[in-house]
Amino acid sequence: MRMSDEQEKLITAMCLWEAVLEMKDNKQEVLSCFENIGTAGMRFYVAQWVRPVDDAWDALSQDEKDASVPFDWEFVPNWIAKHVSWENPHQPMVLS
């Protein structure tokens, strides 16, 4: 069964949030962002990452996707590690 675009975006958002929560327990800079802007603030930033993550996934070849599965436990956390800067504890930013 094929998911709608809206469902796929929701899944990506949930995977992103889950990965950030996991990182909060292991990375001081992520924890600092939570402490400074709160959980609701973090959700606001993480929700903005859905499109760039989906675009990055869609740009992969099938072989690259096969090497990056599962999406939630491999691709998403790796994308965050490579593309999000936690330097500003008041505003995590996607690197261009």
Order of helices and strands: HHHHHEE
Instruction: Please identify the structural class as seen in this structure.
Output: mainly alpha
Described by strand count, sense and barrel closure, the largest sheet is: 2 strands, antiparallel
Q: If you average the pLDDT, what whole number results?
A: 95
Tell me the strand percentage band.
under 5%
Tell me, briefly, the overall form.
globular
Radius of gyration: 13 Å
Low-confidence stretches: none
Number of helices: 5
Task: Summarize the structure in words.
The protein is 72% helix and 4% strand. The chain is mainly alpha-helical. It has one domain (5-94). A two-stranded antiparallel sheet has the order 1-2. The longest helix is centred in the N-terminal third of the chain and has 20 residues, at 5-24.
